[in-house]
Amino acid sequence: MKLLQTKFIDQFLILFSIIISKSLYYETYGENYLLLIVLFLMLIYFTIRWKKNESIISIFNILMIVIISISIVINPNAIYSTFLVFFTCQVISFLFVSTISIFTYANSFYNIVKILIVISFFRYLFIYFKIASPFPNFISINGDQFENFIFFGILSKKETVLGILRNNGLWWEPGAFQIIINIAFLFGIILNNSTVRL
User: Fold this and answer.
1) 38 Cβ neighbours under 8 A, 6+ residues apart
2) Do 65 and 90 meet the contact criterion of CB atoms below 8 Å apart?
3) In the chain, which residue ranges form alpha helices assigned H by DSSP?
4) Phi/psi class of residue 76: alpha, beta or left (left: φ > 0; alpha: ψ in -120 to 50)?
5) pTM reported for the whole predicted model
6) How confident is the model at residue 1 (pLDDT cuts 50, 70, 90)?
7) Would you tell me which of 20, 48, 108, 154 could form a disulfide with 14, CB atoms 3.0–4.6 Å apart?
8) Which long-range contacts (CB under 8 A, 24 or more apart) does 37-42 make?
9) pLDDT digit string (tens) for 114-137?
10) Residue 78: how many CB atoms within 10 A of its CB?
């Protein structure tokens, strides 16, 4: 039972890490404030598992965070609001690698993105049959409105045929979705879930 609970929490946090990777959820529902929520959740989870000797603290990882942070702070052109966001992401990453194994993360990331890819193809049915979403629109950072279909967003304004064909999934732009797919594909190769033939 405890193993199932741990697995569920791991999956939830990994899903959250995908959502905060500049997805339409991130852009619509809080942006950098979502990072603080993930940081808080990861601190709690890390502490619980550390007390059970299930989390590790890597001095090397801490040293890397300190070195990178100092190199940014001493830069005379540093923008401290940007630094705080970057530092928060560093700490979140540290907590992830200290708490969730790379195998668990890679496997979950691969499976979650695979599901998102398959579901995202349904966008063409919604576009073809002009089915409206009952949910409030997603709003991207540059202000574009996307119809919210929970697992994917469809740009509300009229597009060219090429624009309609391009699949953006849960991201503001198809290229951003492609980056997530590429990372999942690389994880799949590492896990032997995907093959590359030359």
Assistant:
1) 13, 16, 17, 20, 92
2) yes
3) 2-19, 24-28, 32-51, 59-73, 80-99, 102-120, 123-128, 161-165, 174-190
4) alpha
5) 0.89
6) low
7) 108
8) 38/13, 38/92, 39/88, 39/91, 39/92, 39/95, 41/13, 41/16, 42/13, 42/92, 42/95, 42/96, 42/99
9) 999 999 999 999 999 999 999 999
10) 13
Residues in the chain: 198
Give dist(CA 13, CA 38) in Å, integer: 8
State the DSSP code for 2.
H
Q: Which amino acid is located at 117 in the chain?
A: I
DSSP codes of every residue in 11-67: HHHHHHHHHTTTBHHHHHTTTHHHHHHHHHHHHHHHHHHHHTT-----HHHHHHHHH
Amino acid of residue 61:
N
pLDDT of residue 198: 47
Alpha-carbon distance of 98 to 55, in angstroms, equals 6
pLDDT in tens, 22-64: 999 999 999 999 999 999 999 999 999 999 999 988 999 999 9
